[in-house]
Amino acid sequence: MNARNYLALAVVAGMTPLFFIDLGAWRQVFAPEIHIFGHLLYFALLGWLILQAPVLQRYSFAKRGIAVLAIALLLGASIELVQPLFDRTAGFRDVWQNVLGAAIAVALAAPAGAKRRSIGGLVAVVLFLELQAPVTSLWDRGVARLQFPVLSDFSTAFEHRRWSRGQQDDGVTRGGHGSLRVDLPPARFAGTTMRRSLGDWSDFEALSLSIYNAEPVPLIVTVSIRDDIHLSRGGAYDDRFNRRFQLLPGWNDIRIPVEDVQQAPSERTMRLNRIVELAIFTTNLEQPHRLYLDTVQLTDS
Fold first, then answer.
1. Is 166 helix (H, G, I), strand (E, B) or coil?
2. DSSP codes of every residue in 190-258
3. Most CB within 10 Å of its CB: which of 89, 120, 150, 192?
4. CB–CB of 142/166 below 8 Å?
């Protein structure tokens, strides 16, 4: 093997344990979107090494390429099936990303000419589509750091992706930039949840947000705030912050003292530097309802 292959082998060997160990607090260091790049890199390097294996050189490139993709599929599926034994969560989208990583190796190793252009073009298009969401999400994480203590004022293009439901809307605003339009269907629970870029609330006095009730009747909503250990403790109702608010037609400005959030769990205090979810939802909604959410921020007063 040449030096490049030895380097690729070293990287693959070094990354292999990461599929099976719980990184614990270290998982907080890296954004979840980084994980896709790890899968792509690992299986691209592994695919490259398999393509160079002497035992396969007597076969045509097409057969070697198919073998690499098949190995990536089987190995990736096996890893996901075994991961729960190591307290890791299986994700079968990871299997697809593993195969895509192997396809990158096949495209790079393809014979020069039309075959390389066609395989490379196809892989490039699929890779672009697959990376669009994580790349824009990473970009928005950077924007969120610059905006903090504003959590969402919907002044930039991808802020709606911080929320589980809703679309950016420029027609109804409280702060002058935009808002999140949330269409609530009839359901036992209907709402939207912010699940990232929440920052450290420790040095602030209050959380404020504005909600526009677009319907002519009042609506009761619950604001729920959870930290990183809430679910691991069983997700009990009295282990998080919950407060109900009546939304009158039009704009409603809500203020929640951070101290109330911290003291909300019945048997502990909320970890203000590890807030992971801010949910706004209705209960037993009988008719469709539209809300607009704007200017979600932490304040010093």
1. coil
2. EEEEE-S-----TT-SEEEEEEEE-SSS-EEEEEEEEETTTGGGT--GGGSEEEEEEEPSEEEEEEEEH
3. 192
4. no
**What DSSP string runs through 59-89?**
S-HHHHHHHHHHHHHHHHHHHHHHGGGGT--
**Domains present along the chain, CATH in parentheses:** 3-145 (no CATH), 151-299 (2.60.120.260)
Cα separation, 272 vs 228, whole angstroms: 10
The SS3 call for residue 290 is strand
What average pLDDT values come out for the chain (301 residues) when binned by 10 residues? 84 88 62 85 94 90 93 93 81 91 94 86 94 90 92 91 94 88 96 91 96 96 95 90 97 97 96 95 96 96 80
Q: Which residue has the tokens 């409280």?
A: 174
Q: CA-CA distances (angstroms) from residue 143 to 148, 157, 237? A: 9, 10, 32
Nearest alpha-carbon partner for 157 in 167, 148, 149:
167
* Residue 254 CB partners (closer than 8 Å, separation 6+): 208, 209, 210, 211, 223, 245
Q: Which of 230, 212, 227 is nearest to 289 (CA)?
A: 212
Cβ(28)–Cβ(75) under 8 Å?
Answer: no
